[in-house]
Structures are given as C-alpha cells and as structure tokens.
Specification:
alpha/beta, TIM Barrel, 8-stranded parallel sheet, two-stranded antiparallel sheet, 10 strands
Length: 334
C-alpha cells in the first residue's frame, strides 16, 4: 500500500480507502471485522463512513471493532442527512441540513457511536440550499478549533458550490475544505469537465466513491446481457440508465485489458481511477471478505500508458462549452 497527501494537507492516507457503507446493512459485524483486519494488514489506514449509513449502525460497528487501533487510522464520517428520511419516518425541521444546530447535534452523536473523541475528516454529505454556506463553514471551523474535528471535506458538490465554499473560508479566515468526495469512474467521468481541474488548481484532494461504476465494472456483467435478478444493479433498477453503447464499449475495453494482464475487471477499473492526477485515495466497498480481497488485489498493479489511453478513448465524454472553445488555446489543462 502506498500513501498520499490528502490534498494540500500534511495528512498521509492510504491509496485505497475502505468504504464502510455496507457495515450493518449487507455486512454483519463479524464479517466487517475481518474485512477491516485484512485492510489494515494490507497497509490501509483510511476509513470512510457516514452518520446515515445503515441508520448509524455503520458508525456503531466501527466504534466497536476499531478498539486500540483507532489512533493509527484516519477516520472519516459525514453530516447533512437524517436516516429517518430514507425509512419514511418523520424528520424535525432542524434535524437535517447543514445549519449550526444540526451539525453541532450530529457531531456529538457520531463521536458517541464511533467511541472516539475526535473525527479525522468530517465531511458535509451534500450542499444545503437552505443554509448560508457562511454558517456552515463557521460551524465546522469551531469544531476544528475545539479539537473534535481535524480536517474538513465535502461530497457531491458542484464546481461553483465548492469554489464558493473555498472563497468564504478564505474571506473569513476559517478552516476550508481539504478534500472532495465525488462519484468518479470510467462510467462516470463528469467531474473532469469542471470539478477535477478546480480541485487540482485549489489544492483540494479528491477521494472518489463508486470507482466501479455502481457495480457495472465488477465483472459480474457482460456487454449486451441483462444483470442477474439478484444483482445490485437489478434490485436498484439501475441497469436501464447504465446500459448504453458508451458504457458497453467501456466495459469491453476494460475486459480486454483485464484478459491481457491476467487481472479481474474490477482491478483494472480501480487501477484507472487510482492513477488519475489529483486523486488522493480511492474509496472501495466490500460486502464480503472475498470481495475485499479481490479489491485489495489491485495493490501494486499499474496500467501502462497505452492501456490508459485505450480506456480513456472507450469511455470518453463530450467536451462541452466553454471548454470546447478553450481547448484551442495554448496551455489548456497543461
């Protein structure tokens, strides 16, 4: 396992981050503990969860299985949503969002569930259109000053939302977002248009989620074939929006590289994300120890330039205005 700086900070995180969304949902505590053990044995030190994953059970499980290893790990969690909304239960007007009231309440709940007195990376799960970003950033800065949080991050932000947040932090002299957690894979490359260049320019680390394209690039599926009825893509009714010609071409290109290199499809897809400039760590998830071992098998594997070019070509997205115009100018994305 190699280690990289989290954006422009001095914090070192493992090139793979263990996503713990499955803990307490598809993955029971005993299996979660084995997955964590194997991840740490492989050199991993970066864990990602959220207050709403499995209605808080993910944080609770982590709190119980980390034990004395907590101090050597970089633990990340999130705030913004309320698990009750995903279960159709009523939610109070101040029990959701990024207001001072909600953040202050939720950080205490996360600390308690995680059985820790600080969170290494506290991330806002998405933009809040009802709360001024100044209120959110000042509240997060207070948590940093209190020692309850060490670094800040955001997830699922657009480019203008991230840039405004950074400007507010710089203007008021408060802690800024050190990283962004976006969706990014060979299937979903949208952040390359605006968000990824912004992060590179502003020193914001990128820790992608869903590097396997929502499961499309796991090796379970084949071009032109419908997903198995018990598969995740079939259950979530995601196949309809993923099964297009571009994604089929991408899958075929990944399959070709995997066959040539004697690797799994998921390892090739993971390697591509890990090798992108600006990526600090790549978040992967696993429901079973077998899936975890398969993903960890990417360690030490690197695609060559020709393979990267082939995958880039197969998965290419249109260059839109104004980038299409600016692409003709000297120094464009150099």
């Amino acid at each position: 396992m190699k280690y990289r700086r989290l954006g422009a900070t001095g914090l070192k995180v493992s090139e793979l981050c263990l996503g713990c969304m499955t803990f307490g949902r598809e993955t029971d505590e005993a299996t979660a503990s084995k997955i964590l053990d194997n991840f740490i044995d492989a050199g991993g030190n970066f864990l990602d969860t959220a207050n709403v994953y499995a209605a808080g059970a993910s944080e609770e499980i982590l709190g119980r299985i980390l034990r004395e290893r907590r101090q050597s790990l970089v633990l990340a969690t999130k705030v913004r949503f309320n698990a009750n909304i995903f279960m159709g239960k009523p939610v109070g007007p101040n029990d959701i969002g990024l207001s001072r009231a909600h953040i202050m309440a939720e950080v205490e709940r996360s600390l308690k569930r995680l059985q820790t007195d600080y969170i290494d990376l506290y991330q806002v799960h998405s933009w809040d259109f009802e709360t001024p970003i100044e209120e959110t950033m000042r509240t997060l800065d207070d948590l940093v000053r209190q020692g309850k949080v060490r670094y800040l991050g955001c997830s699922n932000f657009s480019a203008w939302q991230l840039m405004k947040s950074l400007w507010v932090s710089d203007k008021h002299g408060v802690a800024r977002f050190d990283c962004l957690q976006p969706q990014y894979s060979l299937i979903c490359r949208d952040i390359e248009r605006e968000i990824l260049p912004l992060c590179k320019n502003e020193g914001v680390g990128v820790i992608p989620w869903s590097p396997l394209g929502g499961g499309f690039l796991t090796g379970k599926y084949r071009s032109g074939a419908k997903p198995p009825e018990d598969s995740r893509l079939a259950k979530l009714d995601m196949w309809g929006r993923l099964a297009d010609q571009r994604n089929y071409s991408t899958l075929e290109a990944v399959e070709h590289v995997a066959k040539e290199r004697g690797r799994s499809i998921s390892q090739v897809a993971l390697a591509w994300v890990m090798q992108q400039r600006g990526v600090s760590s790549t978040i992967y998830g696993a429901r079973t120890t077998e899936q975890n071992d398969q993903n960890l098998g990417v360690l030490g594997f690197r695609l060559d330039d020709q393979e990267v070019d082939a995958l880039n070509k197969a998965s290419a997205i249109p260059v839109e205005y104004p980038n299409a115009m600016q692409a003709r100018l000297p120094g464009y994305r150099s």
